[in-house]
Write a structure and sequence with these properties.
- By secondary structure, this protein is α/β, with parallel strands linked by helices.
- It has a single domain (10-225), classed as Alanine racemase (TIM Barrel, Alpha-Beta Barrel).
- The chain has 9 helices and 8 strands.
- The chain has an 8-stranded parallel beta sheet.
- Helix 1 (6-30) packs parallel to helix 8 and helix 4 (98-104) crosses helix 5.
- The radius of gyration is 17 Å and the shape is globular.
- The two termini are 18 Å apart.
- Bound molecules: pyridoxal-5'-phosphate.
- Pyridoxal-5'-phosphate binds at residues 43, 45, 66, 90-91, 173, 203-204, 219-223.
- Keywords: Pyridoxal phosphate.
- Pyridoxal 5'-phosphate (PLP)-binding protein, which is involved in PLP homeostasis.
- Its cofactor is pyridoxal 5'-phosphate.
- The modification N6-(pyridoxal phosphate)lysine is found at residue 45.
Length: 232
C-alpha cells in the first residue's frame, strides 16, 4: 500500500472504512449496545492530507493525531473545507504545548499528570475553549508508556475537577501482544468507580473486544490507512 497509487488506495480506504464500521456495529450488537454509542476515531498520524481526503469524502469526521505540530501543519486547511471535523489528541502532550493543543483539538485523551492538568486548566481559562479531556491510565503498569498509575487515578481526577477540566472519561493503551480483555475490563471498572462514562480504548487489532467491554471511542489507524511508514 503506497500513496502513489491514487485511486486504488482511495477505493481501498473507503472500503476499509465501511468494513470497520460494520465490525463495530456487529460487536456492539453482540454486547447489546447501540452502534451509534461508539465513536470511530480514524487515527491519521503520519498520513498526509491526500490520504485523509477519501475518508472525509465518505463522511468520516472524527480523527486522531498524536503530535500537536503535525496536526497544526495538516488540519487547518482540511478543517476549512470540512468545518465539522472533530480532532482528538491521542499522543503524549508536553505541558508547554498545552495552549496549542487546546487551540487545535476538540478532545484530549492524554491527561496523565498534575502538571499537565494545571497547564490545560490555564490554557482553557485563557482561550475560552474547553476540549473534552480523558485521563490516561497506564493500565499495564509499563514504564515506557504514558498514563497515570492506577493508584494515582483518584487524585488526578480530583485535580482535574478542581482545575475545572471537562473530564469525559478514561483512556488506555494496554500492553502489546497479550490478551487485552482483562485490561479493558479493569478500565471499565475504573471508569465506573470514577463515575465517568467515556472509555477510549481499542485499536486496529482489538477494537471489537474493546467494544464488547464498553469502549465509547475506538482509535483505529493501520486497519484504515494501511501500515504506517514507521511506528509512531
Ligand atoms: C497509533 C495509535 C493508535 C492506532 O493504532 P493502530 O494499531 O494503527 O490502529 C491508537 N491509539 C494511540 C494512542 C496511538 O498512538
Amino acid at each position: 500500500m503506497t500513496d502513489t497509487n491514487g485511486m486504488t488506495d482511495e477505493t481501498d480506504r473507503a472500503q476499509r472504512l465501511a468494513e470497520i464500521r460494520a465490525r463495530i456495529a456487529k460487536a456492539a450488537e453482540i454486547a447489546g449496545r447501540k452502534p451509534e454509542d461508539i465513536a470511530l476515531i480514524a487515527v491519521s498520524k503520519t498520513h498526509p492530507a491526500a490520504a485523509i481526503e477519501p475518508l472525509l469524502e465518505q463522511g468520516q469526521r472524527i480523527f486522531g493525531e498524536n503530535r500537536v505540530q503535525e496536526a497544526a501543519d495538516k488540519w487547518p486547511s482540511l478543517k476549512a473545507r470540512y468545518p465539522d471535523v472533530v480532532l482528538h489528541l491521542i499522543g503524549q502532550l508536553q505541558s508547554n504545548k498545552a495552549a496549542d493543543a487546546v487551540a487545535l483539538f476538540d478532545c484530549i485523551h492524554v491527561v496523565d499528570r498534575p502538571s499537565l492538568v494545571t497547564a490545560l486548566g490555564k490554557a482553557m481559562r485563557e482561550s475560552g475553549r474547553r476540549p473534552d479531556c480523558y485521563l490516561q491510565v497506564n493500565i499495564g503498569d509499563e514504564p515506557q508508556k504514558g498514563g497515570c498509575a492506577i493508584a494515582d487515578l483518584p487524585a488526578l481526577l480530583d485535580a482535574a475537577r478542581a482545575a475545572d477540566l471537562p473530564v469525559a472519561g478514561l483512556m488506555c493503551l494496554p500492553p502489546a501482544d497479550v490478551e487485552p480483555a482483562p485490561y479493558f475490563a479493569l478500565m471499565a471498572k475504573l471508569a465506573r468507580d470514577c463515575g465517568l462514562s467515556g472509555l477510549s480504548m481499542g485499536m486496529s487489532d482489538d477494537f471489537e473486544t474493546a467494544v464488547t467491554i464498553g469502549a465509547t471511542h475506538v482509535r483505529i489507524g493501520s486497519a484504515l490507512f494501511g501500515a504506517r511508514g514507521h511506528r509512531a
